[in-house]
Amino acid sequence: MFRHTTFRYLVLAILGAGALFQAFSAGYFGLEVLIEILILAILVLALDMVAGFGGMVSLCHGALMGLGAYAYAMLSSIVGLPPLAALVGAMAIVGALAWIIGAICARSHGIYFIMATLAFGQMAYSYIFQTPIFGGDDGMGGITRPDLSAIGIDLNDSRSFALFCLAGLVLAYLAAVAVLRSGLGRSLCGIHHSEERMRALGLTVWRVKADIFGLSGLITGFAGALAAMHVMYISPGLLDWTVSGEALVVVILGGLGTLVGPLVGAVAFVILKHELSAVTPYWHLVVGVVLIVVVLSRANGIFGWLEARIGARRIFPTHAAVKKVPNDA
Amino acid sequence: MLETRNLSKSFGPIHVTRDVSIRLERGERRVILGPNGAGKTTLFNLLAGVLQADSGQVLLAGKDITALPVARRARRGISRSYQKNTLFDGLSVRENLGLAAAVQAGQARRLFHDSLSHPKVRETVEEVAHLARLEQVLDARVNEVSYGIRRQLEVGVALATRPQVLLMDEPTSGVGPEMAAGFHDLLSGLPRDLTLLIIEHDMDLAFEVADKITVLNYGEVVFEGLPEAARGSDLLKEIYLGSWENA
Ligand SMILES: Nc1ncnc2c1ncn2[C@@H]1O[C@H](COP(=O)(O)OP(=O)(O)OP(=O)(O)O)[C@@H](O)[C@H]1O
Ligand SMILES: [Mg+2]
Question: What pLDDT, on a 0 to 100 scale, did the predictor assign at position A131?
Fold first, then answer.
């Protein structure tokens, strides 16, 4: 179950203020970085829903996001739907695919679940790569952004597009919170704790898992469509499994099962990447070291660590709500 | 209400359940006794569907449910509490009960609606809290309450599915004598039409609550009868010597 605490609201407020400040003050490059963070944040939010709250560690979310990008490009450029309709369509397609993947993988656990999702991701990759209409290795270009000129917004302007993505992230966050706090989210939490117990209470466990996976896919498809709008050109590399791996790194870096943590992780990851890649081609090594330190410290990511240190102070009394104390044997 | 016919199960060469045929009437309170490793928990697993029997049948309200998976059996009205707590740690007592009640009320997959605030779920939670004596601690977190309360909650969660048959695996295991006595009150407060099958090591409690007693030894039913008859049985004294003396 997801809970907001004073500390979490505080971190959200800081992140929001930072994003707004950046959106209004940054130049072209700064805005590009911001947009990259925002889209990654939506992806890792979706991944945290399944991995953090449901224990379903997915290695296909990168591919799902890529499918969202391709679906958007397809629907808008080839089918000729208006961009906003294509956006909704892309979300629906990815959501439905994710539901099916979730339903099929629901019976496997741990490493087998990871491998099954990886296999689905690879299948999506080769499908996109091999199908001529998607342009194969060359990808697809000429992707348009929604036309919001009716309300005086030009999304081809980087600043406006960054704000559009920020609004999207806020919506995705609110949707994720609403899902996790609903009956479905509660059941997911029960399943994460003990699938067997929930089954003995009469719950059809795979349906809950599939539903959550589908909803997560919906949000992932949204991130994919935004990614397509952002770069306006897409290639199969978007569906590479390393994208899923990177998303998982970001979730773990930020803090599994906290929603807020992955947002922090996305900010940290993208900034680290840009700062480091400017000075060394070995930036992946540094990210690797940071990840190892975070994992070995046994804190739940950067945010989890902060929450355990600062959040536990008396000024944040509601923090007790997220503290875990081991139960009896 | 609940019946088994020649139920058998072995793990490799070990026959853990042998030809067990028992029959519980609706509302009956049956206590299962038997030494450690007699196959009591295994029998529960066979009844709940966690394990598949090698042979024999399980019937609920006259219908053969042998082939049904765990969740479907649960929805037909079989619920269980476990020998070791299976509670949801980070959650409050209310939320623990709510998780179970939501499944029964069809709210477990509701979207954009908190199952816990659904009237049917709330009603069940209140009712079960009363039955399992958890009213005072409803909003306490599971890891903040005493072990005895957790044992009560273990039963409460099972009750919150509004079962027809409740299987309780050593509800008093690990609790002190006064808590065990409290369980007697708890058990006698349960609805009269609820069928109870209880594995119990506490003899006093067993004889007090049981309508009938079944004794398992090496996976076999070696005694079935009224508590008074059980008390006098020489066979039982033999099997149960250790714990008998303590009772
Ligand atoms: N899944 C399993 N695989 C193999 N052997 C098992 C399995 N489950 C139980 N057993 C064995 O079956 C026998 C009966 O176990 P069971 O748990 O049913 O006993 P019990 O009567 O509940 O004992 P206790 O009073 O200690 O709880 C034991 O010897 C146990 O080791
Ligand atoms: Mg046992």
Answer: 87
B window 27-56, beta carbon within 8 A of A = 48, 50
- A162 lies in some domain: yes
Q: What pLDDT shows up at residue A325? A: 43
Asked, for residue A218, whether it belongs to a domain, the answer is yes
Buried b / exposed e across A25-64, counting CB within 10 Å, b at 16+? ebeeeebbbbbbbbbbbbbbbbbbbbbbbbbbbbbbbbbb
CATH architecture of the domain with residue range B2-211+225-244? 3-Layer(aba) Sandwich (3.40)
CB distance B40 to ligand 1 below 6 Å: yes
Q: What's the ipTM? A: 0.90
Query: Residue B69 and residue B73: Cα distance in Å, rounded?
Result: 6
Residue whose CA lies nearest to ligand 1 atom number 24: B36
CA of B239 from ligand 2 middle (Å) equals: 17
The parent domain of residue A78 ranges over 6-239
For A244-291, how does the pLDDT look when each residue is reduced to its tens digit (9 = 90+)? 999 999 999 999 999 999 999 999 999 999 988 888 888 888 888 988
- Tell me, yes or no, whether A103 lies in a domain: yes
Which structure tokens are listed for B137? Answer: 């601690």
User: Which regions of chain A does DSSP assign to beta strands (E)?
Assistant: none
- Return phi, psi of residue B138, to 5°: -50, -40
**Type of residue found at B69:** P
Q: From ligand 1's centre to the CA of B17, what distance in Å?
A: 10
